[in-house]
Amino acid sequence: MGQAEVDALLAEQGDVCAICGAADPQHVDHDHRTGGVRGILCFNCNGGLGQFRDDPVLLAGAITYLKGTTWRRALIHPGVYRISSPARGRPPSRSS
Hints:
Layout: H1 3-12, E1 27-30, E2 37-41, H2 43-51, H3 56-68, E3 72-77, E4 80-84
Antiparallel strand pairs: 1-2, 3-4
C-alpha cells in the first residue's frame, strides 16, 4: 500500500483512528490471514487488536467482561448478603 492509498483511506476515515476516533493515527491495520487492509488505527487500538490476536470471540468476551463484572451485594436474609457478579452469578474468589 503506497502513501497515496494510505492518505486516501485516512481521509475516508476523517483523519482519525477507525476504532476510537483519536487524531493522527499512524498504523495501517490488516487482516493477518488475508493481508487485506482494514483501516488506519492509533497505536493503542492497533496494539489492542494484536493482544486479542484479531479474534472476534476474544474481543466479545472482553466486552461482556467490561459490561458485567461489577460485584453486587444482594440481601438474602436480614443481615446476610450474597456478593455476586451479574455476568458470573457467583461470589468472587478469596483472591479478588
